[in-house]
Amino acid sequence: MLPDVEPSEVVVSWGMVGRDGSRDTMYMELLGDRRMAITTKRPNGNMVQVQRELSKDQYADLIDQLRKLDCCSLESRSKTAPSPLESQPELAINFGDVECQIALWDSEWRLGRARECGFAVAQVHGGGFLPDPPAADPAR
Looking at the domain assignment, is residue 132 inside a domain? Predict the structure, then answer.
């Protein structure tokens, strides 16, 4: 079922803030008319904005996936950051009949259904998904 919203309303948004200034900060919003805007701020301060329109199939598939995954029922398990430098990416959904904002810690976005919800959005916007690695991650 497609969202029952005005064409100019935000249906899905995804925001990631690089926690230590060495990673991109990204914000994506998808409107009811299938227009998507992605704004990225690079660590050097440069801003890049890309706009495009999703096909009807891409739009319907994303909405269907987010509904089936019941992304709005995701909840953080912790009110405080699991590590001092961990950031909290946010997914917001407005389907008209369902509306929510989900803010999970990086480590929580890496698990189970939360990971599936994040990847569903990332496949459409193409701006990356993986949250910052845990602070103790040697790959960092």
Answer: no
- The answer to whether the CB of 106 falls within 8 A of the CB of 131 is yes
Identify whether 138 is part of a domain.
no
pLDDT in tens, the chain (140 residues): 899 999 999 999 999 876 666 677 889 999 999 999 999 888 888 999 999 999 999 999 999 999 999 999 999 888 777 777 778 889 999 999 999 999 998 889 888 999 999 889 988 877 655 554 444 444 43
Find the domain containing 99 and state its range.
10-125
Residue 76 belongs to a domain with what CATH number?
A: 3.30.1560.10
Which tokens sit at 122?
């990332």
83 inside domain: yes
Please tell me the pTM assigned to this model. Answer: 0.85
User: Which residue from 101, 129, 132 is spatially nearest to 38, judged by alpha carbons?
Assistant: 129
